[in-house]
């Protein structure tokens, strides 16, 4: 296989891998009824005028499947952390007891589970679009290389390898979404 084909495959694979990583990150934001510290990853706290990620101002833990506790490193940060959680619009209600913030994660209704499942599938479709875009870029590179002198049989082989790579990554997207969907729908 020529160097051009290898390069196109390598770049496409790298872009597709990043798409999978992004999908997995986005799916962690969709809560499945169990409390996880990652539910607060997107929350930014006003730390002396600077919007700072939650993990940089507090320790977030889950003592059980229905509770998240937030232990601020500075007691005067409890109120801004509580406010930031409310403003993040996660559907969580933080309780400040003076030492730490306790968040009870409510049970999901069947309707809410279906909505979250649809959202997970939507994220999967976004990932597939990203994979198709990486495939399109790789195919265009191969076609351009063919115009620049790459033999036709090598170009065809490259296109076949790119399609195989695309199919493999699309299957991974389906697997990741199916795992999250099962997690969401399990009571």
Describe this entry's structure for a reader.
The chain has 187 residues and is of the alpha+beta class. It has two domains: 3-29 and 109-185, Topoisomerase I, Chain A, domain 4, CATH 1.10.132; 37-104, Gyrase A, domain 2. The chain has helices at 3-28, 78-87, 110-147, 152-185; strands at residues 44-47, 50-53, 58-64, 67-72, 94-96, 101-104. The strands form two sheets. A four-stranded antiparallel beta sheet has the order 3-4-6-5, covered by helices on one side. Strands 1-2 form a two-stranded antiparallel ribbon. A hairpin with a 4-residue loop joins strand 5 (94-96) and strand 6 (101-104). The longest helix is centred in the last third of the chain and has 38 residues, at 110-147. It is elongated, with a radius of gyration of 22 Å. It starts with a helix and ends with a helix.
Beta-strand content estimate: 5-15%
Query: Largest sheet at a glance?
Result: 4 strands, antiparallel
Helix/strand/pairing class, anyone?
alpha+beta
Distance between the termini: 50 Å
Mean pLDDT: 88
The number of helical runs is 4
The shape, in one word, is: elongated
Low-confidence parts: none
Number of domains: 2
Order of strands in the sheet with most strands: 3-4-6-5
CATH superfamily heading of the largest domain: Ribosome-recycling factor
Radius of gyration: 22 Å
CATH fold-level topology of the largest domain: Topoisomerase I, Chain A, domain 4
